Amino acid sequence: MIKDFLKGLVFGSVVGGSAGLLLAPQSGNDTRRKLQQNLEEAAATQEDLNQSIENFSASLKRTQSLVTQLVPDLQDSLKKDIEAFQFQAEPRINRIKKQAEVLQEHLDIPETTNRSTKD
C-alpha cells in the first residue's frame, strides 16, 4: 500500500512538473527577471515610505517645539487681555446695575400707587 502511494506521488510530481514546464506562459528567465523587478520596486517603495516617515517625524518634532514656545506666550497674552477687559468692564457693569436699580425703583412706584387707588 505504501509502495502504491509512493509510486503515485512520484508519478504525480513528474506529470505536474512536466505540465508546468510545457504550459508556463513565460520562460524561467523572464519569470525571474519580473520577480526581481517587482522586488526592486517594492524595496524602492519601502525606502520612500521610510523617508516619508522620517520627514513626518521631523516635522512633528518641529511643530511640538513651536507649540511649547508659543502656548505660554499666548496664555499670558490672553490673561492680560482678560484682565484689561475686566478692568474696563467693571465700572460699566456697576453703572448699569445702578441704572437698573433706579429704573426698578421708578417702576415700583407706579405699581404701588396703582394698587392703592384700586383698593
UniProtKB/TrEMBL annotation:
It comes from Enterococcus asini ATCC 700915. This is Gas vesicle protein. InterPro entries: Desiccation-related_membrane, YtxH. It comes from the Bacteria.
